[in-house]
Amino acid sequence: MNAPSRGTAVELDPPGPEPTTDGRFGDFGGRYVPESIIPALEELESAFRTSWHDDEFRLQYATLLSEYAGRPTPVTECHRLSDRLGVRVLLKREDLTHTGSHKINNVLGQALLTRRMGKQRVIAETGAGQHGVATATAAALFGLDCTVYMGAVDVERQALNVWRMKLLGAEVVPVTSGSATLKDAVNDAMREWVASVETTHYCLGSVMGPHPFPWLVREFQRVVGDEARKQCRAILNGKDPQYVVACIGGGSNAMGTFAGFVTQCPDSVLIGVEAGGLGLESGHHGAAVNRGVPGIVHGMRSLFLQDEHGQVVEATSISAGLDYPGIGPEHAHLAELGMARYEYATDDEAVAGFQLLAETEGIVPALEPAHAIGWLAREAGRSIPSGSTVLLTLSGRGDKDAAQLMDRLGEL
Length: 412
Ligand SMILES: Cc1ncc(COP(=O)(O)O)c(C=O)c1O
What we know:
There is one protein chain. By secondary structure, the protein is α/β, with parallel strands linked by helices. It has 2 domains: 24-69 and 103-213, Rossmann fold, CATH 3.40.50; 75-100 and 223-409, Rossmann fold (3-Layer(aba) Sandwich), CATH 3.40.50.1100. The protein has helices at 38-52, 55-67, 79-85, 103-116, 130-142, 152-157, 159-167, 182-196, 213-235, 252-259, 288-291, 329-337, 347-361, 367-379, 402-409; strands at 24-25, 28-29, 75-78, 88-93, 121-126, 145-151, 171-175, 200-202, 243-247, 269-277, 293-297, 300-304, 341-346, 389-394. The chain has a 6-stranded mixed β-sheet with strand order 3-4-14-9-10-13, with helices on both faces. A 4-stranded parallel β-sheet has the order 7-6-5-8, sandwiched between helices. β11 and β12 form a beta hairpin. The mean pLDDT is 96. The site of pyridoxal-5'-phosphate has 21 residues, from α5, α10 and α14.
């Protein structure tokens, strides 16, 4: 079979496994929400289950992915970076999708579901602004009203994306509570949804929140991993990459990538890279698997950074998209089973990764996947033996981060 390549139609693999009946991945997941939104979650679960097995829906979704979002995205072999690191690096190029990140895959699926459920309005939370831009884009395409909640700190550090959302016709609501970042944006979006659930779909942007979101978002992102597996086999003469690496905020690009490998490529080691912020010992980071404990937040049971009283601790990261104190429940489950490894890269290592990829490959990554690059640069020749093959998902492009990095790096 030919590997997916640009300009060819997207062919979706069959649906992946469902969580258990009440949306559990082992001990994690579930649906911890106010009574008033249970009917909307049940309606969404049923609409998604039916649609995801419906040929017409799947064709509409696949057509949007190819003709609007520009899929399949390529896997690029990085010769100069590989020479520099001593490992063979292949990048899955989600930065080349329309709107510049993997977030579009999920949003197009949820926009189709919104239409099927007869709703006219979407709301969303956003950190880096990429999910907000993707949602505003899909809303423009489908003629839906759109409101995006964004922490006030992120509004400032991702000003370009705020402007893009407004240009696309969305209302952007800055959130000033708490740390004024992604966690607080999710709080406000959920609060608003309780009030507007009859007419509004909450287009959640990662594999988190109450059931069915972690499952549904994983399924809309699994195209990343399913494509990458076939493309890697074509490049590696039928073999699978030894390591499959992706950065983790809530965990959607990683979960979408892992979904293509976890059962089909048992020899590939799956690695999620969390935000190490100022270093794990500093207490200022976003490493929810490395330093989190189980808790219930944002409608799900998962791992969260918490203090000794069980209060959620603010995350710290240079990158708005990884600045979240929790992780999606399926990742918590994979971590508990030892089926995936969770590592981290600090802010400084992410900035170094950002520069390294630009200089060696002419690709400017978003700060989020720059964490994965920075981690690989540290570990190549150490925990990742020289000569290994590594697939790394480049979840987005770096334009949105240019102003922030200009401030930090100054004159080059
Ligand atoms: C480019 C990019 N990568 C990764 C992330 C993190 O999200 P997730 O862990 O859901 O992939 C974001 C979030 O905004 C992003 O914009």
